[in-house]
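Q: Given only this backbone (251 positions), what sequence would you predict?
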């Protein structure tokens, strides 16, 4: 039986076809980037927030500071070098992020659910997500849950503003912001500033009405809506046997 994590990882990996550098977070982004390196993007260079560039770990890291990332890596940079030269220097094609909430413009919340002063849930916060959003050429987001609590009309708190929100505040970011959102229902996409996220692909068996019911804003549908090809046996074998045989993140 194919799990939701496997489907999300495979679909996200395909979106990395032709990309050269990816700033990957731990979890599903690492699974997707590692699988892409074995399939659609053999020249992909994976960069981690701990400063590791061109990682070639013998097995999946459990944290961004896992020592397994360093062995065989192309370089290990200081934080000022990583964020100042690599990210702000415009050398990241895709920043891979997660979030608790996302809105139609691709703004992300990873700070609090509820009121800032008295939140229902306090989340990990930005980390480097704000810099990744502002400086990557584009950002992909993987969301395990696609429901109105996660896909909201208005964020409880904006941790990582996309270019539309940044421009409204007089800041001109370098990148396009969120261009792809991969979920359990399908894929939402936008080309860049000025566009809302639209539904462009659905998993087999999922309907447009389902996607709209699970989205907290009036979700528009792209003109070329497609059905996502299910994970192949080859992709699943690589994911299960080569990328994550110990099921660190596959669940």
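A: Predicted residues:
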């Amino acid at each position: 039986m194919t799990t939701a994590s496997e489907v999300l990882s495979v679909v996200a990996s395909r979106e990395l076809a032709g990309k050269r550098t990816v700033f990957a977070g731990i979890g599903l982004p690492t699974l997707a980037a590692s699988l892409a390196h074995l399939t659609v993007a053999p020249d992909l260079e994976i960069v981690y927030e701990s400063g590791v560039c061109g990682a070639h770990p013998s097995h999946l890291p459990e944290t961004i500071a896992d020592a397994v990332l360093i062995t065989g890596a192309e370089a290990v940079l200081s934080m000022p070098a990583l964020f100042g030269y690599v990210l702000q220097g415009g050398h990241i094609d895709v920043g891979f992020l997660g979030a608790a909430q996302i809105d139609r413009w691709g703004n992300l919340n990873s700070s609090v659910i509820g009121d800032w002063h008295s939140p229902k849930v306090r989340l990990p916060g930005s980390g480097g997500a704000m810099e990744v959003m502002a400086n990557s050429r584009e950002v992909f987001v993987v969301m395990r849950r696609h429901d109105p609590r996660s896909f909201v009309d208005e964020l409880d708190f904006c941790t990582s503003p996309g270019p539309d929100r940044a421009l409204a505040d007089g800041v001109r970011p370098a990148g396009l912001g969120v261009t792809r959102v991969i979920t359990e229902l399908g894929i939402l996409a936008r080309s860049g500033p000025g566009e809302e996220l639209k539904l462009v692909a659905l998993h087999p068996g999922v309907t447009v009405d389902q996607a709209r019911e699970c989205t907290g804003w009036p979700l528009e549908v792209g003109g070329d809506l497609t059905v996502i090809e299910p994970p192949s046996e080859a992709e699943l074998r690589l994911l299960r046997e080569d990328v994550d045989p110990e099921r660190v993140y596959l669940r």
